[in-house]
Amino acid sequence: MKIIKGNDRFYIMDKEHEVGAVELSSAGDSLIIIASTHVDDAYKGQGLATQLIERVVEDARATGKKIIPLCSFAVSEFERKPEYRDTLNNA
User: Fold this and answer.
1) Strand, helix or coil at 26?
2) pTM of the entire structure?
3) For 20-79, how does the pLDDT look when each residue is reduced to its tens digit (9 = 90+)?
């Protein structure tokens, strides 16, 4: 499986099928909003949603952006992982 960066999203492909995605929005030039995260039911329990959030965090660090997690999964990931807090928008 492979994580691919698209326009305002990252998604996971398993062969020719999309099996999960994190949908993003921009708030100006320096903020990324995590609007939703979803994984196909057949692929749940494999840590794919966690991998998607991790990829968003890596991208935010690489581009110097901050993140506003809005979806419940993203909020819980930021609460569980203090190592993500450097990318969290505190405004």
Assistant:
1) strand
2) 0.94
3) 999 999 988 899 999 999 999 999 999 999 999 999 999 999 999 999 999 999 999 999
Separation in Å, CA 57 to CA 47, 50, 54, 78: 16, 11, 5, 10
Residue located via tokens 């099928």: 17
CA dist., res. 26 & res. 1, Å (int) = 26
How open is the CA angle 51-9-43, to the nearest 5 degrees?
45
Task: Compute the distance between CA of residue 65 and CA of residue 52 in angstroms, rounded to an integer.
Answer: 17
**Please, which contacts does 65-69 make with residues 24 or more away whose CB atoms are closer than 8 Å?**
65/30, 65/31, 65/32, 66/30, 66/31, 66/32, 66/90, 67/31, 67/32, 67/33, 67/34, 68/27, 68/31, 68/32, 68/33, 68/34, 69/34
Task: Count CB-CB contacts under 10 A for residue 35.
Answer: 16
